[in-house]
Amino acid sequence: MKSRVIILGPPGAGKGTCASRVSDIAGIPHISTGDLLREAVRERAPLGIRAKGHMDAGELVPDELVVGMLRERLARPDCQKGFILDGFPRTLAQAKALGGIAAVDLAINMVVPADIIVKRLSTRLVCSKCGAVYNTRTLPPKKAGICDKCGGKLYQREDDRPEAVRRRLEEYKKKTKPLIGYYREKRILVNIKTKSIGEPPEANVRRVLAAMGIKG
């Protein structure tokens, strides 16, 4: 079984949802660098304190700090059987840094047509209190504009508006083209294609499991 997996894909591709479900089935941890960063800041870990300084200044957190957090996380016992990494690497430099921490068995590249992503993200709503995510097309709240979980007000992020989504997709393509090529040259890249807006997440979960050598 290919158990050390990274999931690549543009914003709105469904990386987090897919990684979470594959994690449950495969019995390996789903690791999100965004979650790692928030946890380190919340717990006031040394790397988290340094990262917060950059965040408070409106700066990107340097790769060396993110890599340091990732190194600590991958050293935990639950990662001995493997992991599924979501949100990292995003650049060629990060991919090479990851290679210095752990070997990667499989790089999943989630390929989703731009029009599907625009439809997905332009109908996404986020809770202003707890951060829960909804979608007016596929996962609407029980009461329009109100979070089911905490009663908070739902809103649309500025970068989820159609014109902003298209800009984000173009930026993603430019940044990740070398990254895709890097894993293709290593012969561990597998493209997972979403075929339609109505295709359920389980379809991609089954495709990823098959690529890992697991019967879903």
In brief, what are we looking at here?
The chain has eight helices and eight strands. It is of the alpha/beta class and 216 residues long.
Q: Mind explaining what this structure looks like?
A:
The chain is of the alpha/beta class. It has a single domain, classed as P-loop containing nucleotide triphosphate hydrolases (Rossmann fold, 3-Layer(aba) Sandwich). The chain has eight helices and eight strands; from the N terminus they run βαβαααβαβαβββαβα. The strands form two sheets. Strands 2-3-1-4-8 form a five-stranded parallel sheet. A three-stranded antiparallel sheet has the order 6-5-7. Helix 2 crosses helix 3, helix 2 crosses helix 4 (63-74) and helix 6 crosses helix 7. The protein is globular.
Write the layout of secondary structure elements.
Elements: E1 4-8, H1 15-26, E2 30-32, H2 33-42, H3 46-56, H4 63-74, E3 83-86, H5 92-99, E4 106-111, H6 114-122, E5 124-127, E6 133-135, E7 154-155, H7 162-185, E8 189-193, H8 201-212
Name its key features.
single chain, 216 residues, alpha/beta, Rossmann fold, 5-stranded parallel beta sheet, 3-stranded antiparallel beta sheet, 8 helices, 8 strands, 45% helix, globular
CATH homolog superfamily: P-loop containing nucleotide triphosphate hydrolases
Query: What's the end-to-end separation, in Å?
Result: 13 Å
* CATH class call: Alpha Beta
| Helix segment tally | 8
Mean pLDDT: 91
Number of β-strand runs:
8
In one word, what is the shape? Answer: globular
CATH architecture heading:
3-Layer(aba) Sandwich
- Report the sheet-strand fraction: 5-15%
What is the spatial order of strands in the main beta sheet? 2-3-1-4-8
Q: Name the poorly predicted regions.
A: none
